[in-house]
Amino acid sequence: MTAKINRRNWLKATSLTSAGLAMGTSTSLFATTNNSLQLNEHRQFWEWENTTLIPPRDLWNLKARLLANENPYGPSPSARLTIMESVATGNRYGQGDAAKLIEMIAEKEGVSKEYIMLGPGSSDLLEKTAITHFLEGGNIVSADPAYMSIIKTAQNMKAEWKSVPLTPTWEHDLDGMEKAIDAKTQLVYICNPNNPTGTITDGKKLWAFCSKVADKKPVFVDEAYLEFMDPKDQHSMVGLLNEGKNVIISRTFSKGHGMAGIRVGYIVALPSTLEKIQTITRSNMSMNVTAVKGAMASMKDTGFVESCRIKNKACRTYVCEELSKLGYEYLPSHTSFVLFPIAISGDAYLKKMFAESIGVRAFKVFGKDYCRVSIGTMEEMKLFVDAFKKVMV
Ligand SMILES: Cc1ncc(COP(=O)(O)O)c(C=O)c1O
Q1: Which atom of ligand 1 is nearest to the CA of 195?
Q2: Quick one: pLDDT band at residue 392, thresholds 50, 70, 90?
Q3: What does 281-324 look like in DSSP terms, one character per residue?
Q4: Nearest CA to 241 among 269, 214, 215?
Q5: Is pLDDT above 90 for 20?
Q6: Is the CB of 189 under 6 A from ligand 1?
Q7: What pLDDT score was predicted for residue 283?
Q8: Is the pLDDT assigned to residue 78 strictly greater than 80?
Q9: Global model pTM greater than 0.70
Q10: How many Å lie between the centroid of ligand 1 and the Cα of residue 260?
Q11: Is the pLDDT at 182 greater than 50, yes or no?
Q12: CA separation for the pair 104, 70 (Å, rounded)
């Protein structure tokens, strides 16, 4: 059995008909399956937060916490030191430091500082973008499955989600997405690499798509996991801004820099787009001075992110090999997590894994249950594999 799963092969083996797939362009597949991805995703959190099954305090006591794509190595030593030292300046607002961080990011991204907006994590910027782009409703076009943050906020702003299923090789169906765009489309959302699949869409094809589509509609490209890709595959879409294209690129310090709980992210966009986002939302006032200083220190520590990438790849390869040995297929991941189909319901699986003190996530993708395991340290991945063998084999 080839371990890397190809969706075409899997689809052949399921009851999902090609007619059902065709519906996906204008009506989400999940609409036909009772919006299971969204409900499932939020139900997991709801269970953790509101039931005795997995009380939130226990998330700190897990043997392996592999459920939120957190980087187990961060923050970098120099970021930690800077954050500790900067606590003493916490009586002051941090606009000056935020302005310095913006300058550093602008230089790294090859744009001027008017193109950068900071947020306490990229979630904040995904939400602010959705709030300001869907004031009049309309629709958002994205892949299915996708990272749901911007889509959920858009839906809460009364926008419609026009979902386009990923291709059989788990890439964005760029032609399908272009066809799905209509007069009411306010934003096109691409997550590359994609969450929860971990798969990528070819950088050259994506560049051509963004270049064409952004002349008509703003294209938001979420690059949260870019740092985990092999350097030769890391094709950021930021360069399109130098061609005047209306793209919005989000990046975060949560993943590659290991600062998820510290909260720093940014978007790179045309100044006119940032003006629109800032008409009803504020920018640097949401920033925490310790986080901002920590982010600057982490940017200067250039070896840290690279060392995380290398360790992440070794641990990911280990998990994939172990899954293969057990006869499990998995999606080819370029990120800090791996998605693979499981033969029992997600709820039952989570109960078993959490009973072993291993925190993972379960998703429904096209009606089938999948586990998403985040990549932790090698020790954590061994604990995951041991528990998985115990409960699933
Ligand atoms: C694809 C993607 N985008 C954005 C985020 C949000 O990250 P943060 O708000 O920590 O920057 C996440 C978090 O898991 C993610 O997976």
Answers
A1: 1
A2: very high
A3: S-SGGG--HHHHHHHHHHHH-HHHHHHHHHHHHHHHHHHHHHHH
A4: 269
A5: no
A6: no
A7: 82
A8: yes
A9: yes
A10: 9
A11: yes
A12: 24
Residue 34 neighbours by CB distance under 10 Å:
10
- The structural domains of the chain, with segments of one domain joined by +, span 7-73+304-392, 77-301
With the CA atoms of 195, 102, 262 and 220 taken in that order, what torsion angle do they form, in degrees rounded to the nearest 10? -20
Q: Cα–Cα distances in Å, from 253 out to 33, 299, 345?
A: 35, 9, 33
Kindly compute the dihedral angle of the four CA atoms of residues 238, 243, 245, 250, in this order, to the nearest 10 degrees: 10
Amino acid at 311: K
Ligand 1 atom nearest the C-alpha of 191 is 1
- Whether 18 shows a pLDDT value over 60: the answer reads no
77-301 topology per CATH: Aspartate Aminotransferase; domain 2 (3.40.640)
Tokens of 200: 């990528």
CATH class of the domain defined by 7-73+304-392: alpha beta
Q: Say whether pLDDT at 2 is over 60.
A: no
Ligand 1 centroid from CA 248, angstroms: 15
pLDDT of 277 reads 96
Atom of ligand 1 nearest to the CA of 194: 1
- Using alpha carbons, select from 277, 282, 253 the residue that is nearest to residue 266: 253
CA of 70 to the centre of ligand 1 (A): 10
> What distance in angstroms lies between residue 122's CA and the mean position of ligand 1's atoms?
6
